[in-house]
Amino acid sequence: MTQNFFITGIGTDVGKTVASAIVTEALEADYWKPVQAGDLEYSDTDKVKSWVSNNKSVFHSNAYALNTPMSPHAAADIDKVKIDLKKIKAPKTKNSLVIEGAGGLLVPLTSSETIFDLIQKDYKVIVVSRHYLGSINHTLMTLELLKQKGVDAYLIYNGNRHKTTEAVIEQMSDVPVLGRIEEEPYIDKNVVRQYAEEFKEKLCQI
Which of 10, 26, 167, 198 is deepest in the core (most CB within 10 A)? Predict the structure, then answer.
């Protein structure tokens, strides 16, 4: 059965793109980043494509590719582009689809709409959490927002284990944990393939 997986994070630079590559590889799914802001010369789509080994995944074009590495609403203003959510439509595919968000759930796309508005109720949402001072609050708020929307949420930790942090997040949210991405010195196809094998069984049970 094919499904749509939305990868979000508790903030910026927590490891969404690496997690997206791992899930894409594990499920041999398609990949789509609806809004890319900045780094167009080597975008998140380029990164995921370079890290995925299978020949089945298709990498779909951004709905919006903005030049400045800022919140999409601000980057769009600089580019004199108006983001229209009606134009951000998931690509048609018979395959499962991994959708990577930008920043966290409440990152603005317009003055009244956020990344959160891209998530459909039938999506499986994977939250990437990375430990830092304040990350418990950010993780629990993200999971609570998803709970209010009524979507199925799952956690992936990125980075070294922090026992007490993870224990309280899991006790207070009761959200299933799919696994952990360790503090890797580099990411390449071999690393992604290894994690894909580790994550595959749990992902296929979602």
Answer: 10
